[in-house]
Every structure is written in C-alpha cells, then in structure tokens.
C-alpha cells in the first residue's frame, strides 16, 4: 500500500493551506463565477479569450468527460491556463492500494460495499470499540463487527448514531450482535456521554456541518483515533467557518455557497439522474430569464429531487415562484423561450469548466483545515485517497491518531503562536 501523506507537522499543513489560499485569491473570478445563474458572461473572459474560445468549442462528449475527471480537466486546459500545473501539485494525494473486493453481504449495495471495502483497507489496522458517525443503516459498522475482513477483531463492539429513525430500524432488523444504535441529532443533541477516549470514531461520507461536529466532539472527548471521509462540504452549514485557528485567521473567506463547487462532479451519477438534473437546470434558466425580462427578481432556487422532472414544467414553476413569494403568479411553457435557455445552459456548462478547475482545490482546503484542526488538538494526521474516483469522487481519508505524549501537548500549545 502507498504510504499516506503525513501532515503531522503543523507547519507542513499551514504551508499547504497558505499556497492554496494564494492560488484561490489570485483566481477568485474563476471559482466564484456563477455561469448557471448570472445573466452576464463571467468577468474572466475579457482577459482570457483563448480559454473561453476553447471551452465554448467543446462538444458534448468532451464536456461530459471533463466534468467527471479532475485529471482530464487539468490536462485539457493546462496549455491555456498555467495555474493548472500548480493545482495538480496542490491536490496530489497518495492512493491506497485497492483491495480485492469480495462479494458484499446480502442487502449492501455493490458500490457502497466497494467504498466500505476501500475505506477499511486504507484505515487498517483498526481497533474496537468503534463509533460510527451518521451511520444510516450502519453498513460500515456491520462489516466491521461481522468479520467481513481478514484482519477483523474477534468479538468487537460497535456504537452508531443517526438522526433517521427509519434507517436505524432497518439496521436493527439486520440483527448484528453487540451494536448500540442511537437516534439523535448530532448537531443539536448532547452526545458527550456516548463518546469516550477508547473509541475509534468513524465517518464514511459525513456531510459538511455533520463532519465538522464529528471532529470537534471527537477531539473534545479525546477519542484515540478518528477516521473520516468528508463529503458535501456546503451542507448543514448556514455560515461556513473553518475549524482550525490557522484558517480562521486567514484573509480569504469562503462561503458555504462557494463550497458547492467542491462537489460539482457527476461521474458516479446514473445517466437518467444526470439528464433529469440538466432538465431542471434548463427550466430554471428559462424561468429566470422570463422573470428578468419582467423586472421581477428570482433570488431563491428551491432544490428539487430528480423526480420533480416527472411533474412537469408548470409544477416546477409553481414551486420556484412560491419559494420567491410569488405564489399567485402562473408561468407556463408557452411563456418562456426554452431554446434560449438550452443555449444558455450549453454555454454555462462549458464556461463552468473554468470554475471546476478549482473544485478539488477547494475540497483540499476543507480537508487540510480539518487536518490542521486535529493537529492543533494533539493528533497525528495522515491523508490518503482511499478509492478511485469512479467508485466515489469523495475519496479522501483523514486518519488521525491521538498523540498523548508531551510533544503532542507542546504542539497544541504552539498553535496559538503566529
């Protein structure tokens, strides 16, 4: 297995964050552009006409391929966008050797099992008792306590927490022994009595505010080890704030809305889901254009599931107008220019690739903020890419082991210094 990228020394983590912030600050017009919602063309086009021409000339297959792969995107744009070389270096992570994936236990979806298998392999060796954060049906925990892995402990103990009672009930029906499942809101309920120093705290694809709470509570309770694969950095956060003292003092401010870019990647989505999402985008742009022509603001966009496409354009408009406090208005397909919306989306998809160049960099900023925070709290931290992006684009493992030596205490105290 390739060794993980060791960010134990705080200064190494600070240096990486400083370099990332320098790139992001110098290229703010690119990653903060909103081509899917802004009427005007992005500000960067005037200074980079060759890049804009290249992007607008891409065919649909190329756009689809570049949207799904950071490596392919950086390769395609590097000659017209020199910052790609810097980004490639800053987002580089060692990849863990992929396990020989066995058949999943009954009831665990195949791709979810591949994620679990890779996560456990990259984090091994593991030691119980385990505490699974935002566990859902507790597939990860089930795999750990039922001996699915060659290096599994004998008779391990597992706890898990999730807010969804129905998911926890489904987990209980799987009759896994020695598993305590807690129904609680991890953002609001007091879980300090459930988490303790002996726990190995685990989170596979915990979103935004959920994983920030996981790290802060885990560090507060001094869990001996924390292993996290973060996901959807913008979710469950009204006003994004970094965890680490270092990044809280930085001049660059990144919003929760900015962090949506970090997960704008559809490589693992089904074709039907991607087509439905695109149709919703066309409808949104058509309605937006119609309202702008009437001089009426459409400032909020209600996020809808893919299935909303089945209810049609009229229902879509009713929901969006109600969200913007226009409940009495009626817009039908005859009131909009759908062809113009299609063209606008086509151009936005292509120009949006310039923003996507920075998506993994924004993700690394969040990941390194978590790593820096854990270093500040006295942990030794390593980073690994635990699976291929085809299995999951959210494939970074933050693996932290508590350093209870004097050196760890000195390291925590040093973080208050400039």
UniProtKB/TrEMBL annotation:
Keywords for this protein: Methyltransferase, Transferase
Question: What's a Gene Ontology MF term here?
Answer: methyltransferase activity
Q: Pfam families under this entry? A: Methyltransf_32 (PF13679)
Listed InterPro entries: Methyltranfer_dom (IPR025714)
Keyword Transferase listed? yes
Give the Methyltransferase domain ranges.
Answer: 127-235
Give the GO terms filed under biological process for this record: methylation
Q: What is this protein called?
A: Methyltransferase
Species name for this entry? Spongiibacter thalassae
């Amino acid at each position: 297995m390739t060794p993980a990228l060791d960010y134990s020394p705080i200064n190494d983590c600070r240096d990486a964050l400083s370099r990332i912030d320098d790139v992001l600050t110098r290229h703010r017009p690119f990653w903060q552009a909103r081509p899917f919602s802004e009427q005007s063309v992005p500000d960067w086009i005037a200074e980079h006409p060759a890049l804009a021409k290249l992007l607008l000339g891409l065919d649909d297959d190329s756009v689809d391929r570049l949207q799904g792969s950071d490596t392919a995107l950086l390769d395609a744009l590097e000659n017209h966008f020199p910052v790609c070389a810097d980004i490639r270096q800053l987002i580089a992570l060692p990849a863990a050797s992929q396990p020989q994936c066995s058949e999943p236990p009954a009831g665990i979806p195949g791709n979810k099992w591949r994620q679990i298998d890779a996560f456990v392999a990259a984090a091994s060796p593991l030691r119980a008792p385990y505490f699974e954060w935002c566990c859902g049906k507790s597939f990860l925990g089930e795999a750990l306590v039922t001996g699915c892995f060659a290096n599994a402990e004998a008779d391990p103990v597992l706890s898990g927490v999730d807010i969804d009672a129905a998911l926890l009930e489904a987990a209980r029906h799987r009759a896994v022994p020695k598993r305590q499942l807690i129904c609680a809101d991890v953002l609001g309920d007091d879980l300090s009595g459930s988490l303790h120093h002996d726990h190995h705290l685990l989170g596979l694809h915990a979103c935004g505010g959920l994983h920030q709470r996981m790290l802060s509570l885990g560090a507060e309770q001094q869990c001996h080890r924390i292993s996290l694969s973060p996901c959807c950095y913008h979710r469950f956060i009204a006003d994004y704030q970094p965890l680490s003292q270092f990044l809280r003092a930085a001049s660059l401010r990144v919003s929760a809305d900015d962090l949506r870019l970090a997960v704008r990647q559809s490589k693992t989505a089904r074709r039907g889901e991607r087509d439905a999402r695109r149709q919703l985008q066309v409808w949104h742009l058509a309605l937006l254009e119609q309202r702008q022509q009437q001089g009426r603001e459409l400032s909020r966009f209600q996020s809808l599931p893919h299935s909303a496409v089945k209810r049609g354009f009229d229902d879509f408009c009713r929901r969006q107008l109600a969200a913007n406090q226009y409940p009495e208005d009626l817009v039908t397909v005859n009131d909009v220019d759908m062809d113009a919306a299609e063209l606008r989306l086509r151009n936005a998809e292509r120009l949006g690739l310039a923003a996507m160049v920075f998506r993994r960099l924004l993700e690394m900023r969040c990941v390194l903020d978590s790593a820096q925070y854990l270093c500040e709290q006295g942990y030794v931290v390593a980073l690994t890419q635990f699976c291929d992006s085809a299995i999951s684009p959210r494939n970074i493992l933050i693996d932290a082991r508590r350093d209870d030596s004097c050196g760890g205490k000195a390291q925590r105290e040093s973080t208050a210094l400039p």
